[in-house]
Target: tRNA (guanine-N(1)-)-methyltransferase
Amino acid sequence: MNIDIVTIFPEYFAPLDLSLLGKARRGGLLDLAVHDLRSWAHDRHRTVDDTPYGGGPGMVMKPEPWGEALDAVVPSGTTARLIIPTPSGRPFTQTLAAEYAAEPRLVFACGRYEGIDSRVAEEAAARMPVDEVSLGDFVLAGGEVAVLVMVEAVARLLPGVLGNADSVSDDSFAPGAMESLLEGPVYTKPPLWRDRPVPEILLSGNHGAIARWRRDEALRRTARVRPELLARLDPERLDAHDREV
Ligand code: SAM
Model:
């Protein structure tokens, strides 16, 4: 997969050299390039923002550098899915991460200040798919952290990036058995720690019973912490035991 990130703070993306993502990049599974938006600002101060039309506080990112940046990163005759993080976008979910992981090329546009002049997304949409995406109902100082989150969520779904592909299917929200569910508690050795034993069932070796226990715990935790997710569960996928839990 190819990922391009356009930002005024390229240094923000140094962590993408670490851990799983760094390994994926070095192994050729992920080709990631970070571009400095100011390379497409031509005045002496390499200005990328200006005052908002209609008045009000703060500054807005100018369309010209963004237009030139997107022309250069996605030249005519090529395409990519453009993702613009913004609190006013559609929610970023595991389903969307999986959709992005199936794309050959993603471009992320990091906003700052009060955001990017709205004509940039409009104009780009004439030549490529554009998604305005929110990480949640809160406001960050800039799009860089949001892009780090999205790139990590997408990249760990790429074939070969995780050592054990099964860990993706057991995760919270994973399509299949975990759809709309939060993962329950997890444990490792020792079996007794500070008078707290690991639940007996996990030491039983009975894989069917363990799978049932894990599903029960996922249902209980989801009901307790995110009851609204349970409402989204497809009733067809619930068995009689699920209903008792
Ligand atoms: N004026 C904007 C509003 O109220 O919707 C907030 C702009 S915010 C200070 C600056 C940038 O941070 C945004 O352009 C976006 O790139 C990023 N950002 C802030 N909160 C975000 C969120 N919840 N999800 C995704 N991106 C966010």
